[in-house]
Amino acid sequence: MSVVDFARFVDELATQSGQAILPFFRASFATEDKAAGKAAFDPVTEADRAGEAVMRQLIKRSFPDHGILGEEFGTENPDAEYVWVLDPIDGTRGFIAGLPIWGTLIGLTRGGVPCYGLMNQPFTGERFFGDGEAAHYQGPHGHRRLRTRRKGDLADAILHTTDPRLFGEGTADRQAYERVEKATRLARYGADCYAYAMLAAGHIDLVIEAALKPYDIVAMIPVIEGAGGVVTTWEGTSAAKGGRIVAAGDKRLHEAALALLNA
């Protein structure tokens, strides 16, 4: 498959999934709680299922030997050399609240290593994509190369997390996160995958999360790394399997955050 063919294919995945999802945004639709009262509210909508279904159909038709890992419909052919990692709506809470801080995550791994990622926000018409070597933005303001901001001091950094409560009240993880937040200049909450896109674009310096699944982060790893950033677990290992994640636009900032998280 040539570079041009691949670019066209992932664009088609983004376009078709966006067309399936957008009719539900800011409209009346059914919402279910996947946690079923056993944990924090974990919504899934008709839009999630519609978006993932169309992507799976396109992948199976074009690359029947590839594997797929998706949030809504599970795993198929997980031992394949190439596995697509899909989250049709990352930021479903924002989606059901009518806030445009969600996106469709389309990731590809080779031998378990993330090699390409794309975040599509069809409502705003923005796409953020990368292959680990370079990252790009395409949207209403045209096309440009993505580059993270070079800030090595936590005291100057802008930090983001989805919600501090997700670390667990009174837990060691919550205390670790709060150590970092207290050391930063500004903290913002609630943007899910859009925060990683803003980190790659040089507007946010640090993102810290916990309890992520692979489909929450795989697509954003090549984008962040392609823009010059770093993303690992809190232990400094690969983030491809999810878990406790820290992403930074600057290696020095990443090291400083890890030191506080593990203090």
Briefly say what this structure is.
This protein has 263 residues and is an alpha+beta fold.
Q: Can you give a write-up of this model?
A:
The chain has 263 residues and is of the alpha+beta class. 32% of the residues lie in helices and 30% in strands. It is built from 8 helices and 15 strands. A hairpin with a 4-residue loop joins strand 7 and strand 8. The longest helix has 19 residues, at 3-21.
Protein traits:
single chain, 263 residues, alpha+beta, five-stranded mixed beta sheet, 8 helices, 15 strands, 30% strand
N-to-C SSE string, H for helix and E for strand: HEEHEEEHEEEEEEHEHEHHEEH
Query: In terms of per-residue confidence, which ranges show pLDDT below 50 for 5 or more consecutive residues?
Result: none
Share in β-strands: 25-35%
Whole-number mean pLDDT: 93
| Shape by Cα distribution | globular
Record field, number of beta strands: 15
Distance between the termini: 47 Å
Secondary-structure blueprint:
Layout: H1 3-21, E1 31-33, E2 43-45, H2 46-62, E3 67-70, E4 74-76, E5 82-90, H3 92-96, E6 103-110, E7 113-121, E8 126-130, E9 135-139, E10 142-145, E11 158-161, H4 172-183, E12 186-189, H5 193-200, E13 206-212, H6 214-217, H7 220-226, E14 230-233, E15 243-248, H8 251-261
Parallel strand pairs: 3-5, 11-12, 11-13
Antiparallel strand pairs: 1-2, 3-4, 5-6, 6-7, 7-8, 8-9, 9-10, 13-15, 14-15
Helix pairs in contact: 1-2, 5-7
